[in-house]
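Tutorial handout. Part one gives the primary structure; part two gives the three-dimensional structure as tokens.
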Amino acid sequence: MTETKYTMESIKCFIIEKTGCDYEEVTANCDIIYDLGCYGDDLSELIYQYKEKYNVNLENYLWYFHTEEEGHLNLSIGRAFFKPPYERVKHIPLTPALLLDSANEGKWLVAYPEHSLPRRRYDIVINQVVILVFIIFFIFKCAK
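Part two.
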């Protein structure tokens, strides 16, 4: 049996410090993304600091099961044609209880379901092509 090194209180205080949420909002089974509003880059930073503070091996952590990306990618043209990774899988809540259990085990405990993603992010490729076309159009327009 694994020795318990950390407590729920420790994890709750860590989450409160990183998110600015009130103590009452952070419960063992709240979803840090949907209930506390921490996602995208803010969640990535929280997870990185969690890894460092609690010495958790996150080798098998897959962000797209837990959170979406920051806002500007959610409004992209490429997304109209190709789903981003987080829309291709079922959301798995990221909870303080999960963080606590993983911290006490020293490794990420989520067993992700079978899934496949394209080798490339075609939604992003389309966005880059659209931006390039606008830049080229602007250069030619200004050159006249």
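Part three, for discussion. Residues 8-143 form a domain with the Non-ribosomal Peptide Synthetase Peptidyl Carrier Protein; Chain A fold (CATH 1.10.1200.10). Residues 122-143 form the longest helix (22 residues).
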